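dumping this here before i forget
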Amino acid sequence: GTITYTGKVPTLKPVAMNADPGCAAKHTTPVASEVLVLGPGNTMANVMVRIKGNVPGSYPAPAAPAVIDQKGCQYFPHVLGIRVGQPLKLRNSDGLLHNVHALPKVNTPFNMAMPANRKEADAKFGKEEGMFMVKCDVHPWMSAYVGVFS
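structure:
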């Protein structure tokens, strides 16, 4: 399915990465804000839809990790759904200092340094939880949202 934005589309300023020359150098054109990303017909990107209630069947958590990558001083993907117990791989493809500061309210929060030479780290969430923010304290424009589902 699709989610469609209705109403006046706001004008969003590009992300200002000039505070870190290493980040700015990774882009040759302005970086669009991820606050609202629209496709053809105002279909929305970065939207999570959750089905509440009993879903028939049993679906174990995938053994393969979900991945959040820090690339171009942005988190990819911007919105991610994972399963309870599914591994989460955190990547630093930039070769720059970042940190991954996860702010769940049900699961244990963490603030993990990812210096330029640390390419990967791992995390796991043991409880179901709606969407929560992941941010980089080094680069305040960097954010992503993760939902943990059973």
